[in-house]
Design a protein that fits this description.
The longest helix has 23 residues. A hairpin with a 5-residue loop joins strand 9 and strand 10. Helix 12 runs antiparallel to helix 13. By secondary structure, this protein is of the alpha+beta class. It is built from 13 helices and 15 strands.
Length: 424
């Protein structure tokens, strides 16, 4: 009988039909559907009676009996966390059937709450996923074989599966990096935990930017921690596969041990710093130059390969490296280069004196060939000899003047000689 315009029977019928449609939808969508009481003490099967407890069996006992021993701890931990946080519980596990065979299952259990947020029951589904797990296992086995092909003390592989959220490292490097107790999820969630603290932020930023920019390939050099040699330098080369939406699917990486190369590079860098310090500390100007030849094979210019600070000061130049002699010397003549070219041809060093009329300076240049014959470079050691040259000219002037004045007695003749020599 309708009450206040509502027919309770009609409403009850509509609720029943709604629930039946919902159950029908669930039945065609999942292998097994069940309800669990709010306190997890009772379970009601809607279908799939083959796996679940009988009326006389408690849910807790059934879980301990049905779930594979190797998966039991993870299942209990995941369920406990979901109950505590009142969140959806989702897990994969192996179950023991009545015929004692095992299969893989995927379970999803959702909390149902009232308007106060209190859980009144749990609704769950369970589907057998043995086939997909076997396919996954075969794929993982193949990836393991592929990884092992490159596995050595100097080369290793890492595979990050974004869909399964798992990582795979080749066996030798798992042991070398001290990760034998880590699982695939640990490797995926934090593949940078072995990176040197000074490199980690840069490496993480570079990786995330490469993924953001959808780069198919990228590489980076950084230090990682090993159990046998401390921190070592490695080169990581990565190939990334993306889905049509641009999301990463799989990253394939190759570790290459470049520690020895890095040590050599660092030693070379330190040596170069020391050489540069020595290079700039000597009092003489020093430069290494390379001759440039014209079509006839004659020297027509020289290019500065290296020059120290003293050399640049003597020539009143900055950043001589790469400059041509014709660019810095006014009224440059190719003939000036002939003595220098002779040094290259014979290997015998020479010393020449050059005068800069524009700067009113004299320079002594010692020229020697660099390395062996056939290496078209020579070294220049340059000294400013202006003071010495001025003294020599003054002595020569005084000597000549005294000789000319020896036979003169009148002042007018003496003044005329002195004037002419000064002009000269």
């Amino acid at each position: 009988m309708p009450v206040n315009g509502f027919d309770p029977d009609e409403i009850q019928e509509q609720l029943y039909q709604c629930e039946e449609r919902y159950k029908a939808f669930m039945l065609v969508s999942f292998d097994r559907i069940y309800r669990i009481s709010a306190d997890w003490s009772q379970l009601e099967m809607l279908n799939g009676q083959d796996l679940f407890p009988t009326a006389s069996d408690s849910l807790a006992n059934w879980i301990n009996r049905f779930i594979h021993y190797d998966d039991l701890d993870n299942v209990v931990e995941t369920i406990s966390k979901g109950i505590l946080e009142k969140t959806v519980i989702e897990l994969d596990f192996r179950g023991i059937k009545k015929d004692s065979t095992s299969s893989w299952y995927h379970a999803r259990i959702v909390p149902i709450t009232n308007n106060k947020g209190e859980i009144i029951e749990w609704m769950g589904t369970c589907s057998e996923i043995t086939e997909s797990k076997e396919t996954e296992h075969q794929l993982m086995s193949r990836e393991n074989r592929d990884a092992d092909l490159l596995d050595s003390s100097t080369v290793g592989t890492i595979i990050l599966d974004y869909k399964r959220r798992e990582g795979l490292l080749s066996h030798f490097w798992i042991n070398r990096l001290g990760l034998k107790d880590s699982n695939g999820r640990d490797v995926f969630e934090d593949p940078f935990r072995i990176v040197h603290p000074e490199d980690r932020k840069r490496v993480e930023t570079f990786w995330s930017e490469s993924v953001r920019d959808k780069k198919a390939k990228f590489s980076d050099e950084y230090r990682i921690k090993t159990v046998d040699a401390g921190y070592i330098w490695i080169l990581l080369q990565v190939s990334l596969i993306y889905d049509p939406a641009g999301q990463p699917l799989v990253a394939y990486g190759v570790y290459i041990d470049i520690h020895d190369r890095k040590l050599v590079e660092e030693a070379l860098r330190i040596s170069e710093v020391k050489l540069r310090s020595l290079f700039n500390s000597i009092r003489e100007g020093f430069a290494i130059v390379r001759p440039i030849y014209d079509k006839t094979g004659q020297p027509c210019d020289v290019s500065f390969i290296e020059a120290n600070q003293v050399c640049e000061q003597l020539l009143a130049q900055t950043n001589l490296k790469g400059k041509l002699l014709s660019e810095i010397v006014k009224n440059f003549k190719k003939e000036w280069l002939l003595p220098y070219d002779q040094v290259l041809r014979t290997g015998a060093p020479q010393r020449v004196e050059e005068r800069s009329h524009r700067r009113r300076r004299w320079f002594s240049v010692h020229v020697s060939r660099v390395a062996e014959a056939g290496i078209h470079q020579y070294a220049l050691v340059i000294n400013d000899i202006t003071e010495r040259k001025n003294k020599e000219l003054l002595q020569s002037y005084i000597l000549e003047l005294s000789q000319r004045m020896r036979w003169l007695s009148d002042g007018e003749s003496i003044q005329d000689i002195v004037t002419k020599m000064l002009v000269k």
